[in-house]
Every structure is written in C-alpha cells, then in structure tokens.
Amino acid sequence: MRISGAIDFNAPVLNYARKDFPLLEADASVEKALEAIRREGIGERVIYFYAIDERKHLVGVVPTRRLLTAAPNTLLREIMVPRVITLPAEATVLEACEFFVLYKFLAFPVVDAGRRLIGIVDTDVFMDSVLESEEGEREETRSDLFEALGFHLAQVRDVSPWRVFRYRFPWLLVTVTGGTICALLAGFFETTLAHSLVIAFFLIMVLGLNESVSAQSMSVTTQALRSARVTWAWFKTAFRREIATALLLGLACGALVGAIVWSWRGDAPSAFVIGGSIALSLVSACLIGLGVPSLLHAVKLDPKIAAGPVTLALADIFALVIYFTTAWLVLR
Q1: For residues 53 and 59, is the Cβ–Cβ distance under 8 A?
Q2: Does one domain contain both 128 and 226?
Q3: Lowest mean per-residue pLDDT among 103-117, 150-164, 180-194, 316-330
Q4: H/E element, 115
Q5: Which of 115, 25, 40 is nearest to 76 (CA)?
Q6: Residue 172 maps to which CATH number?
Q7: CA-to-CA distance for 99 and 106, rounded, in angstroms?
Q8: Contact assessment for residue 265 and residue 274, using Cβ atoms and an 8 Å cutoff
Q9: Most CB atoms closer than 10 Å: which of 64, 110, 118, 166?
C-alpha cells in the first residue's frame, strides 16, 4: 500500500497496512509452502513470510533465505523464527515508527487481540513522507531510512515546554507523595531510629538498593513490553522469572550488607535487621518493577513516562515499611 503526502502520526497504523500477503502453515513442508506461494501470489511486496497454526494464530516468521535453501520436505516450523515482534491492532503510526527505529526491521506484522495477522506495515509506507525522495533515488536512500525516521520522530515530539510540563508534572507528584509518606513513616518510627543509630546509618543504602533494583526491573519490563502482549500467561512467566532473580539479588545483597554491619559494629541483631530487610525489600522492588509497567501498559498509559515515578515511590515506601517494622520487632 503506497501512501503519498504527509503521514498522520496519530492515526491507526492499520490505515497504512498492506493486506495482500501470503500466510503459510507452520506444519506444512517447504515444498507445499512454495506451491502455495506460486498459487496465491505474494502481493505487491513481500519482505518476510509469516507462519500460522491451525487456529490462524501467528506463530513465527520464515526468512526468505531459509525458505529457498531448505530441503523440500523440511517443515516450516523447523526453520521459522518463533519469536515475532508484532504491532498491536490499536498501535499508532508513531509507535510503528518507533519500532522501525528500535529494531531496524523492514516490516512488522499487525495482529489483533487473538494474535491473528491482519496487516503488514513495511518501510515503503514511510519512504515518501519521511525521506521525500524521488522514485529513482529510493534505493540509494533506503539505507538512511532508520536514521531519517529518528530525526522525523524528534520533530514530531518537539512540542512546547508547557505541554511537556502538563504531561510530566502529574507523574512527578507521585514522587512528592511518596517522599511525604516516607517522611511520615520515619517520624512514626522515630523512637526505633533513636534506639539504634546503626539503623539510621544504613537507611540511605537500603533506599538506594531498592531504587536501583526496581529501576532495573522496570527497564527490562518496559523493553519487553515493546514486543510482548500483556496477558496472564506472559505475566505469570515474567513473574516466575522475576521472583527467582529477586531472591538471588536479595539474598546476595542482604548477606553482604549484613556481614558489613556485623564486622563494623559487632552488632548481630542490627546486622540481621539490616541484611534481612534488604533481602525482603529487594524482592518487593523487583516485583514492583515488573508490575507497575505491566499494569500501565495494560491500561494504555505510557510506561516510559509514568512507570519511573510510580515504581520508585512504591519501592521506597515498601522498603521503609519492611525496614522499620523489622527493626521495631527485633530491636525493641
């Protein structure tokens, strides 16, 4: 599908998607796949071939080189790449451009909620509007497409400071609120802090570790959400992986800091409180770093802007609750 003139970056990407593409059965042989391609044609332009299962769900991408060089009796499932980066049907043109810049692919499949392929968006859609080149120059400029897209997106986002302020400030209020809650928590446990100064000494380290770990988990999750659909199956898999990582990080950091406290102050109860609190709070920090971006993505809010303040505020609050409560129970 060729589009001339300026592109509306807020329009649904489906407006610019091609519908003339062949679909190959994942359980078919290479020979049968090639017969189907000859019989049905390949449309205006094909860059990648996509494989579907018996329910018409997208299950893989078949590189053209593998399709042409594999033995005739080879099943497509054996040569396809099962991890396909897809665009959801509700994605905008701006989001599609971000995918092109990030992944450097020449086309992306557009899928519905059931992961059925409903369109393909390729780089040719954006050539006229972004590169503004003549037909004879397109081959020479094709290699510059991704760089040009990046510059073009920057221009699209070049909005007024007041608009950026209105977009970002509400999320920073979350940080202000979280900091106020943390201050109130510290005041509530003022007696506990006065009773054991070493608990106060390591307060900054506890908060710093939690913010670092939650930010790491948040970054990994936000990156994964670019190509993943948030479903319970995806979340359960990510949750199990994050729990295992959190336990390892918590035990390692907790044991290390606890050993430092014990060797420095010779205070076993305080070492237990600080080390144990770090171990527990890092688990909560990892889960918050996974949960907040996933939730924001599921409700169609921008996790790149909103997840940071919310994640860090929640991580700080949970860390202080665990830290002060453990100190109050053990050291009173």
Answers
A1: yes
A2: no
A3: 150-164
A4: none
A5: 25
A6: 1.10.357.20
A7: 10
A8: no
A9: 110
